User: What shape does this take?
Amino acid sequence: MNTTVTVSNIFKSFGKVVAINGLSFEVREGEIVGLLGPNGAGKTTTVRIISTIIKPDKGEVTVSGFNVVTNPKEVRNEIGVVFENANLYEKLSVADNLQFFGELHGLRAFDLKQRIFELLELFGLKERARDKVATLSKGMKQKLSIAIALVHNPKILILDEPTSGLDVPSARSLRDMIKRIVKEKRKSVILCTHNMLEAQYLSDRIVLMNKGKKVVEGTPEELEKMSGVENLEEVFLHLIKE
Ligand SMILES: Nc1ncnc2c1ncn2[C@@H]1O[C@H](COP(=O)(O)OP(=O)(O)O)[C@@H](O)[C@H]1O
Ligand SMILES: [Mg+2]
Assistant: This one.
């Protein structure tokens, strides 16, 4: 399997705060990698570096072979990103939000129309296409944010705490949707979460982070076996304690 994202020994500090302290991992084609860790572990900083929003102090990151520092434009073409505070235009309709972001990506009118139709269908938003975003539930807004991230058909999807703030049924529905769509569309995914059950449910592989470093990496099953307990939550608490 080909590698789509390579993070090699990166470091990032904000003043005296060391956010990333020598982190390496890879994401292969079609794989969902969960970046799991407690608050402050460095997950968001890591995906901000991968998304070319900030630069690493040291180390190298490539996306589909493009270096994030020297080829940010090419990198941005390869990825779709959903950060925690979704950037939606509340006064515009669902379809017009997709239209707006599609145009930002320079999609041609005909392609974009097709694409919007497909995404509305895929995310169960067809009935709400003409409604203002302000009238949507939080879960639906989150679905729309992911649809927008996919509007230019990127190979890689980055999701930062996608279900935070959602109630249990909405979170469940969103997770099921993420899993179905990324497998169906063969996307590679980086999922940042502090929620162990979410990482366990969605990830093919988990990179457990703490204090800007990788603590351990493996499939959810491997991580469970490694510490001889059945629940990843135990592994998580156990490793963070050490
Ligand atoms: N822009 C910033 N300025 C100062 N400190 C920051 C900034 N961004 C992140 N940090 C710090 O870096 C560390 C890692 O943060 P972050 O990557 O947001 O962690 P996570 O997403 O895992 O909760 C934290 O200590 C946080 O306070
Ligand atoms: Mg974060």
Q: What stands out?
A: The mean pLDDT is 93. Residues 25-41+84-241 form a domain with the Rossmann fold fold (CATH 3.40.50.300). The chain has one domain: 25-41+84-241.
